[in-house]
Amino acid sequence: xxFPPNYIARACVSSIFNLPPYQRFLVLREETSSYRLLAGTFxxxxxxxxxxxxxxxxxxxxxxxxxxxxxxxxxxxVFSYGGVELLRVGETFHSRxxxxxxxxxxxxxxxxxxYEYYLKIPxxxxxxxxxxxxxxxxxxxxxxxxxxxxxxxEVYWCCGRLADRSIVVMDGAGRYYHVEKGKxxxxxxxxxxxxxxxDFDTAVKKLKEEAGQRAEETDRQKRRNEEAKRRKRLEExxxxxxxxxxxxxxxxxxxxxxxxxxxxxxxxxxxVYCAFEESACRWGVMALDGKVMVEARYxxxxxxxxxxxxxxxxxxxxxxxxx
Length: 323
What we know:
Layout: H1 5-11, E1 40-45, E2 48-53, E3 77-81, E4 84-89, E5 92-94, E6 113-115, E7 118-121, E8 144-148, E9 156-161, E10 167-170, E11 175-179, E12 186-190, H2 200-236, E13 241-245, E14 248-253, E15 256-263, E16 265-266, E17 273-279, E18 282-287, E19 292-298, E20 300-303, E21 308-314, E22 317-322
Antiparallel strand pairs: 1-2, 3-4, 4-5, 6-7, 7-8, 8-9, 9-10, 10-11, 11-12, 13-14, 14-15, 16-17, 17-18, 18-19, 20-21, 21-22
């Protein structure tokens, strides 16, 4: 049942307009004899009010204003996920967006997960019109409700994730957006595109290509950074020396153990590499941090200062590699 406009006007005192632009809850009661006690929620946004009838009555969290509060009312509990807030009332979670959203009943709080810039809310009430980024390998069960960090418009449907970890979402009107970390959502297509607009499949194909290129470059840069850090660590332990404990050998830098004693023999380092013997006459090459560069399967190993390694397979047969 919807509250009559004249009652809404009586209930909306001026203090409600002073609330910050987040969803706030207010318990209402119809005073006339023709209505029994009802519960509703106001969504206050910069002077605009939207009324939604609920099955339970709730209160304002941090600024209490109650027209009527019967006994046994369930009060909302605030849950914060990575800075994104949800309110749980009874068995459902509610968003603080302009367009109200209520989760499925009985959803556990730990099933809701925050991923860098969006909140994943399991929800199988997927609109039939929702298209998938990967229609071959995905199903409607891979789609979930999605609340974007910093976006208070509504809760979206996530249609899939791209190679660069960006996502594609659909709003309640069938419009699709591309969302990247640290950026605002970008409109890409609609279920009913305007004349001249690209359709969903065309837009997603282009996004996949761009995302794949970004992901490859990100991986390359990550590998370069990791290798640079490793090179720096190797330079810091260049003075490491072999040491013996019992019948096994390892590497030490002063009193600091770099490589635990587990090899049959380790020769003095040449640069940032050293030869090691894993078992009788089976030699290989490791870096000073213990990373095996050449597997121990050669009869002899000779390391040069320039990183060239001569590996004796059998007497008279030598293989040369560059580390």
